[in-house]
Design goal:
heterodimer; A: alpha/beta; 5-stranded antiparallel beta sheet; 10 helices; B: 331 residues; mainly alpha; ABC transporter involved in vitamin B12 uptake, BtuC; two-stranded antiparallel sheet; 12 helices; 4 strands; 73% helix; globular
Chain lengths: 257, 331
């Protein structure tokens, strides 16, 4: 397995500058990216996928700049789920999953197994365009699983935003299995409960900069997380440890007319 | 499971092509309204045979190019005609004819037409794709609108060029500009067109999986390992040049490139590996059938021009597709 490293990449898009400094997400662990909208979470993932080319610095995988890798080679090393998956042809769910192998060949997880991992094996023949937003996100996750090789990088950008809790739980389990097998996993999310369930490490990104990077047990503590997000955060005790949640009561009271 | 369906669908398309060819070769309505069966042989037989070959080759190119453009542009309404590519090719040819007349040279022959036709076709496609992008992504509706505008401007420019021609050179261009099957085609051009149809169908079969992945959003397509820029550029060029060859051969034939891919999708499914060859076969069958149909319609002023048949039938199909597929394609 080769390590992913943000070697001070700098990217300017319009008036926005993304300069996270040096960050090394750990192989075999799930890193959850948290931060306000427009803070740079998606940009961080696009850089790791080689979809954006930094003006200076680089994101390297095993010592090679990701954006300079040949596309099929990169696809074997890095699989990504985007926020809003789109397919502009009348493919079925299973056919969309199989597209994960279009240029780079398939990883060890077959298209059918990948669809089962996201709980959609019963919907394999349904046209993608007729599925709900949550189902489409799960199909995109399955496509990334089909493309993924053990020890590779897995990037999920708000991939659970429209997914119901039971299905989200089974996907979390499937993601954790891949991390345990050596994958470097980066997940951008707004869902604090999901972050608590998934994170080994947390990466706070705001204003295009790294506010903090470290073990989830430290950064997801209510006081630390609350100070970063600017809301009151409470924690319930879950089976895997504390489960964070934003307590918006103060805010609601302050902003009520 | 899909290979069985693909083989079955391709067979059906080829049988349809053979049936249309048989009708065109063997059954004709004579000028006095009688139906004549059998293959005449001699010069008339040669004419019928070359008409079938031309229509099959041109229809094959337009069908395959239509599928490829629909996949690359993520748009079920894309086709060489709708995107102004055939119109641009026509303008290229008309402008070349004017330049030749101004220079005192002979009217360009069919093979010499390919170059200006290709310049016009690729130029029109470049303009349409540039205009149809918004924020760096292809906007399906904007693309079709840009194609309609470019096609209309191209038609206007062609008319201007035509009126600049000396009167004795206008006739040839006028018949050609509405799409027609030449009864005595240039052999080299016909061979080039047939080769272009086979090449596009072959490219589709080889690059089919990449073409399928190109229907994902830009970021997703690239993240599964597609070199989108290179795939788009090479296939746009191939479609532009292939379309230009058909325009030099038959003029701008409307809507075959739009309808054939949808017929093919019904037969073999959404995958491009079987889809592009099937679209080529469907396009060939449709154009041969349209030419055969034309032989049977006489409204009192001789047989209808081919372009009128494909434009009327294809236009209706376009409207049906607009209502039906626009809803199902865009998630």
């Amino acid at each position: 397995m080769s390590a992913l490293c943000y070697e001070s990449p700098a990217l300017r898009v319009g008036g926005f500058a993304f300069e996270p400094g040096e960050v090394r997400p750990h192989p075999g662990r799930v890193t959850v990216l948290l931060g306000p909208n427009g803070g740079g979470k998606t940009t961080a993932l696009r850089l790791a996928a080689g979809l954006a080319v930094p003006g200076s610095g680089r994101v390297a995988l095993g010592g090679v700049a990701v954006h300079a890798m040949r596309p099929p080679e990169r696809a074997r090393a890095v699989a990504m789920v985007v926020q809003r998956p789109q397919v502009s042809a009348p493919f079925t769910a299973l056919e969309v999953v199989a597209l994960g192998a279009a240029a780079a060949g398939a990883g060890p997880c077959s298209a059918g197994e990948a669809l089962r991992a996201v709980g959609l094996s019963g919907r394999a023949g349904v046209p993608f365009a007729q599925m709900s937003g949550g189902e489409q996100q799960r199909v995109a996750v399955a496509r990334a699983f089909h493309q993924h090789r053990p020890g590779g990088v897995l990037l999920l950008d708000e991939a659970f935003a429209a997914v119901d809790p039971p299905e989200a739980a089974s996907i979390v389990a499937a993601v954790r299995i891949r991390a345990a097998a050596g994958a470097t996993v980066l997940v951008a999310t707004h869902d604090l409960a999901l972050a608590s369930a998934l994170a080994d490490d947390a990466w706070f990104v705001a204003g295009g900069r790294t506010a903090a990077f470290g073990p989830a047990k430290d950064l997801l503590a209510p006081a630390v997380l609350g100070a970063f997000l600017g809301v009151k955060v409470t924690a319930a005790t879950g089976a895997r440890g504390p489960v964070a949640a934003a307590d918006l009561a103060d805010r609601l009271q302050a902003e009520s007319p | 499971m899909t290979t069985g369906r693909a083989a079955r669908g391709l067979t059906i398309a080829l049988v349809a092509l053979a049936a249309a060819a048989a009708v065109r070769l063997l059954a004709v309505r004579t000028l006095d309204g009688a139906v004549e069966l059998g293959f005449p042989g001699g010069a008339i037989g040669d004419i019928r045979l070359s008409c079938v070959l031309v229509a099959a080759a041109a229809g094959g190119v337009l069908g395959a190019a239509g599928w490829i453009l629909q996949a690359l542009l993520r748009n079920p309404l894309a086709s060489p005609f709708v995107l102004g590519v055939t119109g641009g090719a026509g303008t290229g040819v008309a402008v070349a004819a004017v330049l030749a007349a101004l220079a005192g040279a002979a009217a360009p022959g069919p093979v010499a037409m390919v170059v200006p036709s290709a310049i016009g076709a690729v130029g029109a496609l470049a303009v349409v794709v540039a205009l149809g992008r918004r924020n760096g992504a292809i906007d399906p509706l904007g693309l079709v609108l840009a194609g309609v505008i470019v096609g209309t401007v191209a038609a206007g420019l062609t008319t201007v060029a035509e009126s600049l021609l000396p009167p004795d050179r206008r006739g040839l261009l006028a018949g050609w500009l509405f799409g027609r099957i030449p009864e005595a085609p240039d052999r080299a051009l016909l061979a080039a067109c047939a080769a272009a149809a086979l090449a596009l169908a072959g490219a589709g079969a080889v690059l089919g999986r990449r073409l399928d992945a190109a229907t994902l959003s830009d970021d997703e397509a690239r993240s599964v390992g597609i070199n989108l820029g290179r795939l788009r550029m090479s296939l746009f060029l191939a479609c532009g040049v292939a379309t230009a060859i058909t325009v030099a051969l038959c003029g701008p034939v409307a809507f075959i490139g739009l309808v054939a891919p949808h017929c093919a999708r019904g037969l073999v499914g959404a995958g491009s590996r079987a889809g592009v060859p099937a679209a080529a076969a469907c396009g060939a069958a449709l154009l041969v059938a349209a030419d055969a149909l034309r032989q049977w319609i006489d409204l009192g002023a001789g047989r209808l021009p081919l372009g009128a048949v494909t434009a009327v039938l294809g236009g209706i199909a376009f409207l049906v597709l607009l209502r039906r597929t626009a809803a199902g394609w865009f998630a």
